[in-house]
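Q: Hi! First time asking for a complex rather than a single chain. Here are the components, and I think there are four in total. Is that enough to go on?
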Amino acid sequence: MSVPALSINNLHKSFGPAHIIRGVTLDIEPGERHAIIGPNGAGKSTLFNLISGGYHPSSGSIKLRGEEIGGMKPFKINRKGLSRSFQVSNIFSNMTVRENVRCGVLYSMGYGYGFWRNVGNLHDVQRKTAEILESVDLLDKAQLPAALLPYADQRTLEIAITIAGGADVIMLDEPTAGMSHSETERAVALIKQATEGKTLLIVEHDMGVVFNMADRISVLVYGEIIATDKPMAIRGNEKVREAYLGDEADAIEGDAA
Amino acid sequence: METIVFSLLNGVIYGLLLFMLSSGLTLIFSMMGVLNFAHASFYMLGAYFAYTISEASSFWVALIFAPILVGLVGALVEKYGLRTVHVNGHVAELLFTFGLAYLIDEVVKIIWGRNAVDYKVPELLDFPLFELFGAQYPAYRIFTLFVALAMLAGLWFILNRTRAGLIIQAALSHPHMVGHLGHNVPRIFMTVFGVGCALAGLAGVIGGNYLVTDPAMGVQMGPIVFVVVVVGGLGSLMGAFLAAMILGLLQTFAVAIDARFADIFGWLGLDATSELGSITIASLAPMIPFLMLVLVLMIRPRGLLGDREL
Amino acid sequence: MRLLSSAALAAVMSVTALSGASADTLKIAFIDPLSGPFGPTGQDGLNEWEYAAEQINAKGGINGNQVEVTGYDNKVNPKESLVQLQKALDNGVRYIAQGNGSSVASALIDAITKHNKRNPGEEVLFLNYAAVDPSFTNDRCNFWHFRFDADSDMKMEAITDWVKGQEDIKKVYIIGQDYSFGKAVAAAAEKNLTEKRPDIEIVGNELHPLGKVKDFTPYVQKIISSGADAMITGNWGADMVLLIKAAIDSGFDGKILTYYGGSRGAATAMGQAAVGQVMAIVEHNTNLEMSDAHAAYVDGYEAKYSESNYYYQRIDNAMHMLAMAAEKADSIDPVDVAFALEGMTYEGPTGTLTMRADNHQVLQPMFMSTFSDNVARGVDNGPFGWVADDAARIEAEDTRTETTCQMTRPSK
Amino acid sequence: MSNIATDTMISLSPSGSQKFMQRTVPLIIFAVILAVIPVFGPSRTMYSLLNAMGVNIVFAMSYNMLLGRAGLLSFGHAVYFGLGGYAAVHAMGAIEAASYGDGGFWAGYPVFFLPFIGFAGGALAGAVIGWPSCRRAGTPFAMISLGVAELISAAGFMFGSIFGGEEGISGDRMNGPEMFGLSLGPINEVYWFIAFWTFIGVLGIYAFTRTPLGKMSEATRDNPERAEFVGYDPQKVRYLVFIFAGGFAGLAGGMSAVNYEIFTPEALSLAPSGMVLLMAYIGGIRYFAGPILGAILLTYMQSMMSDYSEAWLLYLGLLFIVIVMFAPGGLAGIFGGLFRGLRGDNPAASLRQWAVQITGIVLMMISLVTLIEMSVNWSNNYGEVFEPFGMHLPHDGVLTWAVIFIPFVAGVGILRKALKNKEGQA
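A: Yes, that's all I need. Here is the structure of the assembled complex.
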């Protein structure tokens, strides 16, 4: 049995009196594509922030390949090979697309806080940047200021920065939020291709995306995971149906049909 | 004994003056996020307006109208200056007020001259109130104490007993919520800035003749106001009050201490004739605020009673 | 009038070198603050230099050469002063007048010495009218520097000479600003008092940070509780005014002996309560007995500059001694004039002045002036002014101090 | 894939000739300007101004490493300038002592290379003070820098053995081995020293912006959260940048030490810290060359404008406020806008628009200058009157107020109309 890529055990988080995450336990195998779904306010973003180092857990443990990362600073977690994207585009808006990706590449290639070399002469960084840009199909827009990109492209750039560092555990927070249908399709294809062979943890509202992409799905409701299973099994799960009402429940049904 | 009594009295009065000066900035900073560099310049304007008004009529008229005038100037500055800069963020706002401080100083020099003006203590209060251990205590200082306490009471009443006050209180701790409550945010900002400046103006009316009214008084008080606000903590008038009191008392007590570094650190082998050893605690008194500023920011960035970090 | 329109022109002109003094003007560059917080003080000095030049020009100038004084604003900043010095050199100036701030004077002395060494034939002379650091005429003495004001040690000699005659002063408190000047004053006071009045008890000797104290009351109450019946302070600017104000407000009733009580704007700030209590050591005040000619000179000044008071008698003295030296040397070349100035005596309005040859320090009668509301000529357009009676006069010789100066002179 | 990537990599990064045009050529032009200036035979005044400008250029650029490139607003940058300068001036003293004494290391150290010592001093100070300061950006950083500046400048007057008290520490630059045949005595030789180091300073700061750290400093300024999620500790980025900014400020201090041969504690105080902020901001903090423009303009104003108006500080304050309110890009932003307009689709239209705007601005300036100069003269009460171009403008003259009001109203009108037109176009 291999060590899980990500292992969360009895994780809790409270903000003052508000108990947001109430004992989450979850193992994600290496190479697995795992989706987390759940109604609004279930604590998905909080969970993401806990794993990526944005928040400090109140109790419980988070292990990355067997190593405890709960409460570590985000940059340390990132260096251990876990990278995340944001729900709202969170890019370096005063830089060009190419520079944005380059920022994501630099640390992983060992250039760290270097102040003795010219980034223009770092051919391995240039090559890696170009590879990433190509893999997300932004090569032709490489010289544009990031702030001027159309929305969908900014989302793509967000993913590009996330995967640039070569982390093997990738967390995407609603990567297709706000995209049109065709844009979503493109994005899904792109994510699939770019995260080939990596462990993927994704939060998503679009059930089409979720069921299309995920190997397994966890359902988070009120800070607790009520079910973790293969997509087909999740569709048939009673508790999940109870938790989802109205449109979203229909969405699950619809996809099942 | 006498040192303690005097230091206590002076410390309290100086602390109250500092609080009067800083309370306005606490309001402005907490609600608008503007660390107004020109705040002490409004204090200076208060003193100069009071001087001109009291020359023309009397000190008591000045006590009422000078702060109102300063408040109006502040409101105008907010409306025609600060608001333009607001879109460029807090650093731009800070820089705007930094430039404004320069301007007010220069304009004051042109209008009132570059020397001190003879802004006198009103005759009614110009007598020694009592004598303590051989030193007289001027009545005006005690008057200062009462004005400051009255202001404190007034502020407390407005903030806790009126509707406007409750809105302000809410805004102090959650500034971005004001807009959601359906209030006209630009107008509230203008009012808060104006009122904040008026409070500084009131401090100027009182401090101008207690100390000296000259074009350097703004620059002299400038940085210390920040200390009070930052040490007190964002959104907390009580914190500002506490910080002002601590600063006032610490400074006056430090002055009263004759010890040198060598006396304190002698056990480390520090020699009284060495440069370091010969420094007295008293000579460090005016440095205390800045030491406090740096330490508080490093150790407790939310300040004494602040409800959030800067 | 300074015209903005000429700024562009001058900018162009400053690129091309302007060299050499014209034959018929003796140019004095006045390098002192003309803007900023110390602007008014500097402007007063410039006014008096310009007035002195005007008066001497009316009498035919120095050796037939017209005197021209130009102000250069140094913002009391040593580095900026050196830039202004270069500007002055470009304009053919050979005489520099400066006084505000020993830091500036020190930088100028250094720069002028180096300039004179590096540019023989273009020597420049420094006429110091107010920078009082004793070292300028002691271990750092210099052939190119002449001081027309008493240095801080000499002023302390004068103050303590006066204290010697005041039997009722028993306890003295010394308070000053925490920097070289304040420390020098404190040290000199302690030394002189123990020599001249061993019975006096120095009940306190305190330094406070320069320009940082807003409320002096705590200091003053310390002074009062120490039982002092006189206070000596070298403070200037706001530090002096605030100290005096706090002292009077708290009912300190001893004498307050100052160096700079007579400076601009202080009288207004001190007010009625300071009358008879605040004293200042100066070489002149406008209520001394004056000859008609001198009175006309003073009144002429105050009429011309209504916002300013006649204060620096030393500027008048310096101008006269400069003229005498130039006549004696029959030259306006700074080297010749400098040699002629050494040891020169001048019968000034207040008595005989001597420029010591050994350290280039002038010796002049000093007056322990008292702040008064009963004066013929007031200051700051107010009712107050300064007076000194015969007992307050300290003769020139009595202010002489030993010098450690070892003057090196250029070959003639 | 990697083949395509390699090809595109070359097309992605600027081509050799682009790099040359955009990066090398400006530097060469800068060097040529520096080298050509002495051909015009500048006066002493000009030389001393140029030298002061050189020092301020490096100082302002080092400041912009913080404000412009890292988003750190400091009110105490002169601390590092001063401490670096003091280190250099003490080293200058050591060179003098060693040359006349028993030799040793300092006897062989050329004064020409003192800015290295300055750099080391500034960087060391940055390393010590930066650690607690750089934990967070924004207001806390600004306030800590203010507090530290107050403390250090107070210490400057207290520790005479280090800072030399009020009169500071002076030295003599004409000691030790000569470099490049420069004795550094005459001011024109000092110019070569300053020019050399100004170039090195600008080059060094430019090179810094090209390093991984320099790039991440901009990234951290724009989005510290994101920087953290790509593996960087924002606090450490800021700290390292702070050390370098301190180092280059110290370099400028070292240049200043050799140029003036003296250092005084006022160099550590809040006033020069404020001045360097003005230089950088007025010049334009978003542009690499911005602080150069600001340093040149403000140095000139400081030393020359006071000859024409004692209200120069007021003009400086006004200029600053106008820039903050209406031209946040500073002078460089204004020039950049002009340049882009000229190369844009419709140069004639933009020229017309500027002509209108400039007319409006000039009219308002006439009005303001008249008001200020008239007021200053009235306030001084020396009976002097503002008399530009032979006009007589006393404070109670009808003509005076006409010269104040008419151009003001006209200027405001023109500018408002220009602004409306612009909005209409957009």
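A: Residues 345-425 of chain D form one domain. Let me know if you'd like any chain examined more closely.
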